[in-house]
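Page 47, continued from p. 46.
Same chain as before, 499 aa.
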Amino acid sequence: MLSKELRAQALEFLKSRKNANNLISIISLLENEGNIQPCILALEMIFTEVLKRREISRDFTAAASEHEVNAETKYQVWLRECYEDTFMRLLSVMSRHKPSMQLQALSTMMKLISLEGKYPIDYRGKEEYYFPVQKLRPIVLELLSSERSTEHLLSRFQEFTAYEDVLYYVWKLLPTVVLNKQQPSEVFIKNFLSLMDKIPIHIETIRYEESRESLLCCREGGPDFVQNSDHLRRWLNRVWSVVIRWEHSSAIHQQLLVVLLEWILPHLDKPLLLTDYLMDSLDMGGAVSLLALQGIFILIKNHNLEYPNIYGKLYSMFEPEIFHTKYKARLFYLSDMFLSSTHLSEHLVAAFAKRLARLTLVAPPHDIQIILMFIGNLILRHPGLKRLLNHPKGGEVSLDPYIMEERDPIKSQAIESSLWELQTLQNHILPNIATAAKFINMPLPSVEWDMSKILENSADDIFEKELKKKVKEITLTFDRPQSVSSSKGEKVTQYWALT
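Result:
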């Protein structure tokens, strides 16, 4: 991809300082609007060699005569200016050229950062680890653009955050970027959350002595990189104390909760401060409510959060719309965890069982299977709920006493009703649904059903399973043949099939 002409100019420059103008002409080509990828590669080739030769490094440990210093300093100053100018032009390429050019510019800048870390420009010996964080900062700012999506650049940048030193200094820069944003644009927030989703978080003190391959900037025989866990935790908490106060659209709110739950929450110093935020999110409905419910469950389980109306909130989330959300499997899983205690009131659990049974009448087939297992598990945990299958008073009623519209599960009168919906499912058109619903007619097992195996099932899974079933061949038996006369008076033999 590096053209012969540019390669020749680059080699001539590296061979002799008489060809210094070659560098100027190559840098000027970055202003072109066409294919500048060969130009970027030529500059990468030049400055890779220049950094290795330390031609732009200031060696404070070396002594030289006044004449040598003056002659060399002029060239070093000029070469360093070209280097800084090239870096700024590459940043400009990241913001205004087509994606392939942007990706090449990002890769070249990160390679130059790696070399600058190994061959520092301001060389002071081997007493400390060096990372050119001043070069990383404008790259991070460009990745967190407020005007355009940088998803493709962030995907490439993820390759570099696999290096522990890059990751560490990205987190060091983030507070200075985020704290200046009172209410950033939606584009900025999307880019920020995308970056959060792509960079791992390792809050632990690590001294990288042997595994130097995990560092982008490491000098042979140089000092070790030490990651300070206290600094990382402080930066993370400062960033999220600001982010959580931004106003978000529903889609952004959902993305933020995913990042918060998956990556951030375990590392917050005071996670209980999120309680009000998560409770407010519960009222938004849809996927946002499901994700907020997961956050509340974590706070209850790991941080002893007490919230009196949590079961009422959970109960209100079981609406027909839930079957059309991406995170419905998460709702069933979390609900199973919330209702796992055998010390819950039977009136409360009966309300959940009845509401779930009513939803089976409108649920997709793959969700009906999950609900049937869920109801069965609730009955196993609370044997008193068997009255919903076989009420001791028996008889018939003209109206179901259960109040579906009641928001308080205790007041829904579910304990006075029955699970007639499951009896109805025994006539379902799909044989596996009809068979599963017949568990109410048989003795219950001693062990709960494992819901995890079918939580992610889809309609296609059920259809495929039905196709794989072997169909029984039905043997037909025939009665004795009988001779009858046709309309033309001919004898015709008929066979009567008996099934």
